[in-house]
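Journal club prep — side note

Before the paper discussion, L.F. wants everyone to see what a predicted structure for a comparable chain looks like in token form. Sequence:
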Amino acid sequence: MIRVVAVFLLFAHGLVHFAIWGSRSDPERPPPFRPDRSAPLSAVGVPEGAVHRMAVTLAVVTGLLNWLAAVWLAVGSDRWAGAAVGAAVCGPVLKTAWFNPWLSAGVLLDLGLLVAVAQRWPAALG
């Protein structure tokens, strides 16, 4: 049962990355943050278009790694942990460079995933 929940959470977390970072913004209902706004990257002069492409690319990589971890976990492959760690490392980089308080829950999920993999928790996933 715990494996099914973990697969669902990994898949859902990947889906959220696609939904938040890959969707077009509606001028009538603007999102709480914009992927073309990154304080650190703007400070060093990266153009807005490049900042947006970087955000979407990193979000897609993170989402795909979450999905890959979910699939490998679902089929019982030990490789799920490597993909999960990759996603959990890319996620905070993305959420830090394009910081918004709305993304704090995602950072907590990523950190929790890193701790879970490092502690080999739960044993039912190993």
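L.F.'s comment for the group: The chain has one domain: 2-23+35-125. Keep this in mind when we get to the figures.
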